[in-house]
Amino acid sequence: MENAVSVTVNGRVHDKTIPIRMLLVDFLRDELGLTGTHVGCTYEGRCGACTVVVDGRATKSCMMLAVQANGCRVVTVEGLENFGGSPGALHPIQQGFWERHGLQCGYCTPGMMMTIFDILATNVREGAPELTAEAIRQSLVGNICRCTGYSHIVEAVQSAAAQLRAMVPEERAAWFDTARLGEVRA
Ligand code: FES
Ligand code: FES
């Protein structure tokens, strides 16, 4: 059975007819060619490599049908660079990973970054307490990394949070405003 869906991914509106049982991760990878979103377990929700942001919340895309994303605004790792307003402008999360060597093989990294997007969007608001290393580890409990031992990932998150806290509120908010990516029909 097939269903028509319209999903906005990284600012591009995709109108597709897809099998009703297609998972969001397969829609992103196979229908749209956005292979930055990975599959690290057997579609069981265990590894977090498939994490994307759906309507502002980090979501394991192997745990969601693509038809459930109909009308939603999805951001994948490929979309992070589009928040800066100029080509190649790294998102503070990417900058943090780059500066603190937050990856080795990189397989878990896209999912990590999209979980962190959700964490920081909430945490860097005015008046929110600074994230401790322990709180960051707790927040990443659903994302498995086989390489880094997590220390560099935690430091990368702290670095990104520090960059964001140094900004004026409007500038900081812009890095999480998914409406800035636009709505261009693909
Ligand atoms: S592929 Fe492992 S949690 Fe989705
Ligand atoms: S960097 Fe290799 S799995 Fe995380």
TrEMBL record:
Pfam families this protein is in? Fer2, Fer2_2
UniProt xrefs under SUPFAM superfamilies: 2Fe-2S ferredoxin-like, CO dehydrogenase ISP C-domain like
Write out the coiled-coil annotation as residue ranges. Answer: none
* Superkingdom of origin: Bacteria
Has UniProt tagged this entry with the keyword Iron? yes
- What PROSITE patterns does this protein's entry cite? 2FE2S_FER_2
In alphabetical order, the GO MF annotations are:
2 iron, 2 sulfur cluster binding; metal ion binding; oxidoreductase activity
Keyword vocabulary terms for this entry: 2Fe-2S, Iron, Iron-sulfur, Metal-binding, Oxidoreductase
Taking every annotated instance into account, which residue ranges of this chain make up the domain 2Fe-2S ferredoxin-type? 3-80
**Could you say which residues form the signal peptide?**
none
Q: What is this protein called?
A: Probable 2Fe-2S ferredoxin
Annotated organism of origin: Sphingobium indicum BiD32
